């Protein structure tokens, strides 16, 4: 494997990793928002 092929693989891996991290943070934010919404709805139901 030549160095430029290695570089390409590294760049692709970095893109995949950043996508994965972005997805993880999006999931975390979504679950946090759902938790807050759930609390709000339960609070409203209790009056």
Provide a compact summary of the structure.
By secondary structure, the protein is an all-alpha fold. The protein has a domain at 18-47. The protein is 94% helix and 0% strand.
Strand content: under 5%
What is the helix/strand order? H
Total of helices = 1
Largest sheet: none
Task: Catalogue the unreliable spans.
Answer: none
Descriptive overview:
The protein is mostly helical. The protein has a domain at 18-47. Helix content is 94%, strand content 0%. It has one helix and no strands. The longest helix has 44 residues, at 3-46.
Helix and strand layout, with pairings?
Blueprint: H1 3-46
Keywords:
47 residues, 0% strand, 94% helix, mainly alpha
């Amino acid at each position: 494997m030549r160095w430029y092929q290695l570089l390409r693989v590294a760049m692709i891996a970095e893109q995949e990793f950043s996508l994965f991290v972005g997805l993880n943070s999006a999931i975390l934010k979504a679950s946090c928002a759902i938790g807050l919404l759930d609390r709000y709805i339960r609070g409203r139901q209790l009056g």
